[in-house]
Design a protein that fits this description.
- By secondary structure, this protein is an alpha/beta fold.
- It folds into 3 domains: 2-89, Rossmann fold (3-Layer(aba) Sandwich); 100-114 and 177-213 and 225-312 and 320-328, ATP-grasp fold, B domain (D-amino Acid Aminotransferase, Chain A, domain 1); 120-174, Dna Ligase, domain 1, CATH 3.30.1490.
- It is 30% helix and 24% strand.
- The chain is built from 11 helices and 12 strands.
- Strand 11 and strand 12 form a beta hairpin.
- Helix 1 (11-20) packs across helix 11 and helix 4 crosses helix 5 (100-109).
- The longest helix has 18 residues, at 239-256.
- The chain is globular.
- The two termini are 16 Å apart.
């Protein structure tokens, strides 16, 4: 069995986890970016690409399974469903992730509270503006009025940080003052259960360094672009609700795009003194899971061994092979 992915995002973890489970590895990498994978020796098979578009016509090897991650969605957008390689997970789930209306629809179907959304002329309080795609917060900005929205948007367009066609997909949400966190779930077809394997927080430049809202008084351009991740353990009393959110999202996904979410997924949450609010869901492995190459406290308790998200994917694939159920995991 060969586990493959593209050279970016969480590729080091994905390939290392596959090797831990005794599987072969392979990486599709843009020319000039292969050195890190050579240095860390996570694979001996590197396929160099001029662009990720080549994946649309790439012929897989026998017994090759491709693990998608955020870079695939960010670069190919809706073409992700056309990748010719056998993909671990449900291809349709990625379409629901990248479309903000569908993303919100799934969260609502799961009964999970989301921030209020606004049209431009409705902005009457502090809001955050988000743009489509898995860009890690790049281009997001805060505004409190329609005029401020137009002013900041114009600057971003002129700077080339936002394309005009992306504006149509922009989402304007009320700003939630809470602790953000990203629980990492895994829907196991083999065990028929949802596993919560870890939680991270994202470190964003330069919003975190500036103290979130205080930067509005400074003459410094605000950026929510993610540059790294931090581990997080929540109060144990909150854990049942976090797990319930993951289970409810899975149930809703089965109704909206059967057979629903398969393998890893994530919900972007904010915890306020009164409630837990979800901003969006992610339908595949997230970069924050790379914090836990040796497993998190949650995965350690669940499996009593080192279990990263990547190794969990490889383990599920191995077990499915042994039970002749591999077709239930790939699309």
């Amino acid at each position: 069995m060969i586990i493959s992915t593209i050279g970016s995002h969480s590729a080091l973890q994905i390939l290392f986890g596959a090797k831990q489970e005794g599987l072969n590895t392979k990486i599709y990498c843009l020319k000039g970016r292969q050195k890190i994978y050579e240095d860390y020796k996570v694979t001996k098979q590197i396929v160099l690409l001029d662009s990720y578009e080549e994946l649309l016509e790439m012929q897989p090897e026998v017994n090759e399974i491709f693990i998608p991650h955020g870079t695939l969605i960010a670069t190919l957008n809706e073409k992700v469903t056309e990748v010719s390689l056998p993909i671990f997970g449900n291809r349709d789930s990625m379409l629901w992730e990248m479309n903000r209306e569908k993303n919100h629809q799934l969260l609502e179907k799961a009964g999970i509270r989301t921030p209020k959304s606004y049209k431009i002329d409705e902005i009457d309080r502090l809001c955050i503006v988000k743009f489509p795609g898995a860009k890690g917060g790049d281009g997001y900005f805060l505004c409190s009025s329609p005029s401020e929205y137009e002013e900041k948007l114009s600057v971003l367009i002129n700077q080339g940080k936002i394309q005009k066609e992306e504006v149509l997909g922009a989402q304007i949400q009320e700003y939630i003052a809470g602790v953000t966190m990203y629980p990492h779930y895994f829907n196991s077809i083999i065990y028929d259960r949802v596993e919560m394997l870890g939680i991270d927080r994202r470190y964003e430049t330069n919003a975190d360094a500036l103290g979130r809202l205080s930067q509005e008084k400074l003459d410094i351009g605000l950026s929510y672009k993610v540059v790294g991740n931090q581990p997080l353990i929540i109060r144990e009393s909150l854990l049942p609700r976090i797990i319930e959110y993951g289970e409810n999202l899975l149930t809703a996904s089965k109704e909206l795009f059967s057979p629903g979410l398969i393998g890893p997924y994530c919900i972007e949450l904010a915890i306020t003194p009164d409630e837990i609010i979800a901003f969006e869901f992610t339908s595949r492995i997230v970069a924050g899971t790379s914090l836990y190459v040796n497993g998190s406290p949650y995965s350690k308790i669940l499996f009593n061994e080192e279990m990263s998200m990547a190794r969990r994917i490889a383990r599920e694939i191995k077990m499915a092979m042994g039970q002749r159920r591999l077709d239930e995991l790939i699309s």
